[in-house]
Amino acid sequence: MLNIVLVEPEIPMNTGNIARTCAATRSRLHLVRPLGFDISDRAVKRAGLDYWHMVDLRVYDSIEDLFHKNEITDLWLATTKAPRDYAQAQFRDGCWLFFGKETAGLPLWFRQAHPDRCLRIPMRSEARSLNLANSVAVLTYEALRQLGFPQLCGEGDRKAAPSSLAGF
């Protein structure tokens, strides 16, 4: 199982999309406060997140709280400031993928504490960064690809495929 960590996420739609990715991939979602939105049962129901019950969610008061409550030995930090790209990483089952808030990324002190574990997604220099939900999806699926897509069937819903797509 992968552990996806969002440190101080600000935009509810991003976290909703990431939660859906976690539900679809059986990854555990860890949220580090402060959150820029409400995740109470009432707010989740109002947002229509019909997959929320499939999300293995944990919430922490700080990065220190997260480390205090979990044994984290294999971690990777996603940052546009990393010297190497994610294709150079060897992901293992149970690893932790850290992502920072939309406006500032991961804290400098945290990146400096783990410089050899920082990864970037290659992109053109004029682009600031990818959307947070897209970045999580890219790294999550690369890690799962390396692990052989454990417990994921990958076949989709064959009975719903239109006849024009039958050969695909």
Written description of the protein model:
With 168 residues, the protein is of the alpha/beta class. 29% of the residues lie in helices and 15% in strands. Helix 2 (41-47) links the parallel strand 2 (28-32) and strand 3. Helix 1 runs parallel beside helix 5. The longest helix is centred in the last third of the chain and has 15 residues, at 132-146. The two termini are 30 Å apart. The relative contact order is 0.19. Mean pLDDT is 90; it is low at 157-168.
Short description:
By secondary structure, the protein is of the alpha/beta class. It is 29% helix and 15% strand. The protein has a six-stranded parallel β-sheet.
Q: Order of helices and strands, N to C?
A: EHEHEHEEHEH
- End-to-end C-alpha gap: 30 Å
Strand element count: 6
Annotation field: number of helices: 5
Strand order of the largest sheet: 3-2-1-5-4-6
Kindly estimate the percentage of residues that lie in beta strands according to DSSP: 5-15%
What is the arithmetic mean of pLDDT?
90
The share of residues in helices is 25-40%
Rg computed from alpha carbons, rounded to a whole number of angstroms? 17 Å
Structural class: alpha/beta
* Low-confidence sequence ranges: 157-168
Shape: globular
Instruction: State the major sheet.
Output: 6 strands, parallel
